[in-house]
Automatic annotation (TrEMBL), chains A, B:
Record's protein name: 2-hydroxyacid dehydrogenase
Keywords assigned by UniProt, alphabetized: FAD, Flavoprotein
UniProt GO MF annotations: catalytic activity; FAD binding
Cofactor(s) the protein needs: FAD
Keyword hit for Flavoprotein: yes
Every FAD-binding PCMH-type domain range: 31-211
Pfam families found in the cross-reference section: FAD-oxidase_C (PF02913), FAD_binding_4 (PF01565)
UniProt GO BP: respiratory electron transport chain
UniProt xrefs under InterPro entries: FAD-bd_oxidored_4_C (IPR004113), FAD-bd_PCMH (IPR016166), FAD-bd_PCMH-like_sf (IPR036318), FAD-bd_PCMH_sub1 (IPR016167), FAD-bd_PCMH_sub2 (IPR016169), FAD-linked_Oxase-like_C (IPR016164), FAD-oxidored/transferase_4 (IPR051264), Oxid_FAD_bind_N (IPR006094)
Similarity comment: Belongs to the FAD-binding oxidoreductase/transferase type 4 family.
Statement: the UniProt record of this protein carries the keyword Flavoprotein: yes
Domain of life, source organism: Bacteria
Amino acid sequence: MLEELRAIVGAAHVLQGESLAPLLGDWRGRYHGQALAAVRPDSPAAVAQVVRACARHGAPLVPQGGNTGLCGGATPGDARAIVLLTTRLNRVRDIDTANDTITVEAGCLLKSVQDAAQAAGRLFPLSLAAEGSCTIGGNLATNAGGTQVLRYGNTRDLALGLEVVTPQGEIWHGLRGLRKDNTGYCLRDIYIGSEGTLGIITAATLKLYPQPRAQRTALLALPSLMAAVAVLERARAGFGAGLTAFELMAAITLQAVTHYFPEQRLPFAPDTAPWYALLEFSDSEDEAHAQQRLETVLGAALEAGEAQDAAVAGSVAQSRAFWHLRESIPLAEFRMGKAIKHDIGVPVSRIAAFVETTNAALQAAFPGVRHIIFGHLGDGNLHYNVAPAVGQGEAELLALQPQVYDIVHGSVMAHGGSIAAEHGVGQLKRDLLPRYKDAVEMDLMRRLKAALDPDGLMNPGKVLA
Amino acid sequence: MLEELRAIVGAAHVLQGESLAPLLGDWRGRYHGQALAAVRPDSPAAVAQVVRACARHGAPLVPQGGNTGLCGGATPGDARAIVLLTTRLNRVRDIDTANDTITVEAGCLLKSVQDAAQAAGRLFPLSLAAEGSCTIGGNLATNAGGTQVLRYGNTRDLALGLEVVTPQGEIWHGLRGLRKDNTGYCLRDIYIGSEGTLGIITAATLKLYPQPRAQRTALLALPSLMAAVAVLERARAGFGAGLTAFELMAAITLQAVTHYFPEQRLPFAPDTAPWYALLEFSDSEDEAHAQQRLETVLGAALEAGEAQDAAVAGSVAQSRAFWHLRESIPLAEFRMGKAIKHDIGVPVSRIAAFVETTNAALQAAFPGVRHIIFGHLGDGNLHYNVAPAVGQGEAELLALQPQVYDIVHGSVMAHGGSIAAEHGVGQLKRDLLPRYKDAVEMDLMRRLKAALDPDGLMNPGKVLA
């Protein structure tokens, strides 16, 4: 098989030994797998040949992009597996500004897609922490979320067309740049978010948007979660689609950032409020109008007592500093001791009740554990993490992970939520799905998998057991 | 079987004879089918029982909502078929304003969903000509489009969760009101747009939006299609997400409206321009700001020569009059003699080239036929209809339908487009699909159908042969 693969992609692009090793684990060091080799095809036709070769030999195929995933979805598990690297599928094939679309190959870095759009005077709005190293193929495979979802949607909402290599090694030429197309079943949305288990996305046609003409960032100090939801509702009504981010941060998260990174400063006294929010307003007019709108909406929130204080970034540098506070939370959290992480979603209307009851249940079971809560309030998506109590060791906490999972995920379900909001399932949550999802839905998913990948060679052991 | 069905839904809700007859054809009079009976279940559990009864007896099931479809998707074709009416599944189950969601049953009229949202101070933005008589279930089954797609997307983009009865008579409880949920394959988007061929949607959780605080409508006279696209691009950049409609109309369509309905008036001389557009701007601020923005953006378009003239509605009544002009086009078209209709989509960047080359090809083949072109320019979606030449009879033209289809659909494909943009496939375009779609895609669609509906009893003969 290796000979066949070398003939397809060239010997230099079949990796084994030392060059294979770094691809066998995830960046968080949580998963360690094995594989026979990795291959780097440079065209959809070569991907199709690789898929057919693997199918003939019964070898599992594991697609991998930037390998920045959080759920082990790109880590191979089988000694016969072939890792399919999308690195060389990295062309921007087309930008059509009059149609507001860009067509890119799966191995393009998300940052490269953003940059190509910007160079054409457009915005590609998908934005997340790993954007400098993750690939758009990985974003599509996991239906990645990020900070701009409340305005522009998840990756699925940004995709119009796909090119996919099927498990049979055929190419579906579905790169349509159409806002309306009802010629049959929506195959596109099945592949998006299927984490490489149904086929390999090799390219996509994505939506572009006009660049905002002005942007304003504000940091808000909030007396309660209920107040945060009230400000969000006010901002939605007042800014309309101009509200492009609404990030929630518990006081402990910003206290940790300023403690571990003392060069970063909060614009408030450190104990001003129990909750903070980073709000971003994007305007299609000009700087003066953006400023006036922000003052109007925030002024009303302050007057209503929904916000205790508001700091508006006076410069691009200060806006970056506000975002930097938000983005530093995971690093500060790491310094506090490894946490038990949850990527949960609930309806925005249930956020406050969810946090209150889940915090209480955890404190009752494990007194003193710390609640590291932050995330995308506008989408009802929280990174609800549980850090060791002061004096508690990492290992001591991590031993409790199953019980902590039970409490948090049980509470998520009681509030009509999702146990995997934006990071996907991968290996991490595969065995939780049957417990928390509708049995009919699990059966439908298995039917789909069997229909599209009957030999079960596409990224086996991910999403479904 | 009829006894079983009566036991499930009650004898009064099993229709035959005279009460069945009107359900056996479409409203345009294009399709006439047959069926054994129609049933009106009033709960998802009853729908599931009906599905199981039909499965036991091998009877095809044809869901029907408002029966306003344009492609024969709701017309039964088999004497053993059971028509499943969603009429009694008509409850608004929940409105959650803090989460901006509404949960409704499939038989709710679209207008009822809009009204329920409005009563709660929110907007449900799906809007189309049949909204007073079509059902949200039909909108979901066909992934309906309409006039607000350039801002809010198609029906699929407005749905968060579904409740579906599978062909096995099980209920998938998928009514999630979540903006982010990556717990497996996106079943939701397979059912949406599948026209009842994979299961029966019984309820949906849909997105709501803030109501605009001010709205402005303008009618523009445009020197060319290229100019229309330029104004669209300018409006997108200048209004951002405030641009909620951009409807294109060829001069002949408005001339026909004012000819057949002389009480309607154009705000311009009748031969001002070859093209017109209806532009709608929705603002999250106030009337004064909306007016100022409109003047700024339209002023620039006039100055650049992209628009020859612009009439801004000065009142709600005038705005309605402008929309009434647009909505009267199909009626005026009907008076001109039955046309050969096309519901096509192409990238916005290809619209002008598509119209120019297709018009020329049709004139070369059938001199004198008239091009009744109007539609949703913002989505690249045109109703590109071909009316008889002056003096040509309807029958004479309709006999040429296969050749006209060939020219128009061939041109659509050459321009990277779709032959069924917003009306769906139904029976009308079923046999065209294999000709114009990727063979791999057709194969994937057949695999899906076989996997989810192995007995082929769900709306047979629609979408796929």
